[in-house]
Each structure stands twice: as C-alpha cells, then as structure tokens.
Q: What sequence folds into this?
C-alpha cells in the first residue's frame, strides 16, 4: 500500500514540474505546412485526372478511326470484288464474241474520195479565222459579225470548217509531228506549243478547242501568217482551210503597187491577187520543200481564188479540194 501511494506521489511531482501545456501551445506553423502539402496533393490529383481524361479521349478517337478504317477497307474490298466480277464477265463476253466471229475486221478509217489524205512527218494545220468564214454572202457576213454569240454559233460555214479542221488533225499519221494554228491578220497559236506527237490526244484536243472556240474576226493576212510560221520551217506538209484570196499583206515601201493596195480602203480583185503572190513568194522562200494543201470553202465575190490556190497546191505536190456541204 505504501509503495502504491509513493508511486502516485511521484507522478504528481512529475506532472507538477512539467512545463508542457497543450492548451497554451501554438500549432499554426505546422498547420500551414500541412495545408500546403494538401494543396499540392490536390493539384497533382487534378493534373492526373486531366491526363486520364485526355488518354480516354485519345482512346475514343483511335476506336473511331479504327471503325472508319474498317468501313473504308470493306468498301475498297467490295469495289475490288465488283471490278473482278466485271472483268470476269467482260472476259467471258469477249471470248464468246471472238468465237462467233470467223474473221476479225479492221476499223475503217474515214477518207475523202478526192485522195486529199493527210500525209507528212511534220505537218502544219492552219485554219482561217477571218470574218469572212461566217458565211458565203457578204451581207450575211456583216450581219453575223454584228450579232450575238448565239447567232454566230449558228454559222454553218464556220461549223463545217471547224469540223473539217478537226478531221484533218485527227487523221494525221500516228508517227507524225503536228503544229496547230489559226490566222486572220495575225498568226494565232498556243504560245507554249511546239511540235507535238499525233498520239498526244489530250494536247491535240486542247489546241483544237483553243483555235475553233475563237469567233472569226478581222481580215486575212496569209503572208504574215506564213512568215510567223518560219520557226516551223522544217515542216514537210501544210494543210490550209480558207475561203478566198488574202485581203492584207506585209507592207513593203519599195513596192509602189503594193503600198497603193494597202492604203486603199477598198480591196480589189487585183490587189488580192497581188497579196497572194507575195504570200506565194514567201512560202517558196521559207518552206521550199513543203507540200501545200488547200481546202477552199465558198465565198462570193472572189472568183479567182480556186485558180490561184489550186495552181499553188498542185505545183508543190499537194492537194486542192472545195468540200461538199456534208463533209466531213
């Protein structure tokens, strides 16, 4: 009993002498540190949550892309299967057709009965796009040249000459080189053009449309056209579509007669013949070995044109035709 009381008394002494009092202590610094730690942990938690959300979004996008790729792959496979089936059906049809044909036929190449076929290794095709190409009568030419585009498109003469121009170009030998141009008072052609292969269908079509889509205008200076064609002087054939003798020429002050014709407001038949002679001289000088071929459309008031053009064409070994209304 005494020992127990002594122990209690000793504890009392320890408590009595202790300086620590929880109620009187200041824990604010420790609380601040803990709060900072908690705040830092919260930020890290938020960052991790955001990262997880981004990863979820990426996973979702990948799944969507996978589904889309699968659908596209199925579509491609189905298309391939359709092509395979079509090819098989066509092969079977071709095989059946070949069995039914005892002798294969060759495609017929359309030719003109006059024998004015397209020949040459380097060929120039030249289309007259002067105002007279609208019609045969002068009054109709004036009326159409002043009309709307719709009315001008209805010109039978221009449509026929454009078709004939296309026919000539498309019937050039497959191993030939060709040059496509039009002319009135100037030579008109694709500035980037040079000799092109007759097998280059895309470029040929583009250049034909470039020439035939121009509405006929101005006069005809055949002499200037042939001079502007001098960079292509290695041509061996030239095919010209026109409707009469030229109405202009290159001025030469040493020729009094030529200057008089050029300065005259009215182009007489004699002046047109003179202009043709000047053209013919330059043709012989610049293209001494060329075959000159003429397709001459009708034009009233120019009765000497067939004589001059046919004489020049035949003298160079070329052809001369006045096409029928249903050609080509």
A:
């Amino acid at each position: 009993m005494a020992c127990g009381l002594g122990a209690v008394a000793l504890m009392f002494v320890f408590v009595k002498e202790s300086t620590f009092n929880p109620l009187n202590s200041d824990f604010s610094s420790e609380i601040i540190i803990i709060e900072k730690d908690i705040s830092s942990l919260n930020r890290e938690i938020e960052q991790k949550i955001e990262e997880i959300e981004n990863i979820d979004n990426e996973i979702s996008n990948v799944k969507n892309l996978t589904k889309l790729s699968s659908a596209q792959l199925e579509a491609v496979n189905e298309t391939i299967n359709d092509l395979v089936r079509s090819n098989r059906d066509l092969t079977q049809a071709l095989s059946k057709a070949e069995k039914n044909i005892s002798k294969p036929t060759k495609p017929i190449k359309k030719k003109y009965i006059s024998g004015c076929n397209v020949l040459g290794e380097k060929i120039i095709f030249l289309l007259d796009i002067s105002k007279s190409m609208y019609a045969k009568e002068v009054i109709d030419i004036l009326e159409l040249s002043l009309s709307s585009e719709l009315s001008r498109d209805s010109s039978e003469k221009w449509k026929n000459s454009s078709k004939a121009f296309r026919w000539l170009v498309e019937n050039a030998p497959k191993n030939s080189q060709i040059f496509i141009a039009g002319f009135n008072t100037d030579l008109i052609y694709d500035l980037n053009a040079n000799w092109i292969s007759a097998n280059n269908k895309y470029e040929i079509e583009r250049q034909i449309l470039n020439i035939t889509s121009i509405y006929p205008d101005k006069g005809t200076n055949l002499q200037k056209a042939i001079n502007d064609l001098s960079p292509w002087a290695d041509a061996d054939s030239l095919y010209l579509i026109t409707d009469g003798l030229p109405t202009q020429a290159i001025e030469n002050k040493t020729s009094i007669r030529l200057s008089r014709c050029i300065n005259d407001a009215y182009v007489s038949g004699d002046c047109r013949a003179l202009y043709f002679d000047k053209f013919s001289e330059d043709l012989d000088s610049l293209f001494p070995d060329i075959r000159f071929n003429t397709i001459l459309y009708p034009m009233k008031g120019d009765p000497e044109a067939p004589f001059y053009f046919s004489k020049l064409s035949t003298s160079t070994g070329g052809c001369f035709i006045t096409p029928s209304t249903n050609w080509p």
